[in-house]
Amino acid sequence: MTERTVAGAHTGRVFITGLGAVTPVGDDVATTWAALLAGTSGVGLLTDDKFADLPVRLAAQVITDPAERLDRVEARTLDRGQRLALLAAREAWADAGTPDVDPLRIAVVVGSGIGGAVTLLDQWDVLREHGARRVSPYVVPMLMPNGPAATVALELSARAQVRAPVSACASGADAIALAVDLLRQGLADVVVAGGAEACIHPLPLAGFAQMRALSTRHDDPEAASRPFDAGRDGFVMGEGAGLLVLETEEHARGRGARCYAELAGAGVTADAHHMTAPEPTGAGAAHAMRLALTAAGADVDQVGYVNGHATSTPVGDIAEAQAIRSVLGSRTGDVPVSATKSMTGHLLGAAGAVEAIVTALSVHAGRVHPTRNYDKPDEAIDLDVVPEGERAVAIEVALTNSFGFGGHNVSLAIRSCQ
User: Fold this and answer.
1) What confidence category does residue 2 fall into, taking pLDDT thresholds of 50, 70 and 90?
2) Is 309 a catalytic residue?
């Protein structure tokens, strides 16, 4: 097992001052948060003919086509995932008050699990059917996995660093962990960090279906994603973007910025167990959670909420539950756990970032959203999973978990700015 702690832990606080998101349940942060508290599902059936012959035709797509929210040039030259990242970045930057920052002190870290796969596959069809002269001249920058990060950096004129971690479904959270490193190392004053993903296409769907990783509950799409429930049968593929504006405490206070919550620490570990299956005991995930608490200077008695990775797969949810129980110990029954993916589906490389936003809002508002479709508890889970209806909770420290193929484990510790 390898591990990484946050550089310079305890040497400086990192504040979350801006939030931006585009998800299957909302076109921005406010509508996403309201939908989650209400238990609204963004999952539906794919009706386009190109999906007709697939064994799985369920997905969680964003509500409004991002091309409709951008100008014609942006829509034509950006991959769908890049469009989502740009929209989330604009919202987050405006939400932070459009800070006046030296470009040399702004960094961007945006992760993606797959990148511009839809562009690649669609342009391959163009090449086969119409020839090389019809291929888009923008195809290479559109398909690059660092495309979302580069798009955001260009938008903000960020000249400190532009980074693009690719850590499968942990990419968004990994980007946030790296952002904390940059801030605590003094390499930037402001970092815009998170994840973006848009890969709802027949090939990725077919691939995940062949792995038997996806739910096949076509008769009731909104009930398909059911993390921790005894009847879960796989995840639902989603798309979206989530970006956070992170600042050093000194910079945020110096400009009078609002603080949603403190990104207090991150823990990053690797399972080194299997390419796609989680380590069954959850040891690596538990170690990441403990590292996050250590980096935050917090102990388990302060944990008041866990936002689970909780994809709705039979094996993955049990491994995470074991990890959570291992960390919380005797407090397991006292700490509420909820699963955002029960409503948004699995946003792959964007999931960890959107769930970090949700966790920050939970800490800020003292409210946690329910886990939709949690109808029959699985005895092997044994957690205080929040069922229907939001719950009011005073949260001192919250953890949000993200895990990815390849054995990536990331846990973020978030607490009140007070």
Assistant:
1) very low
2) yes
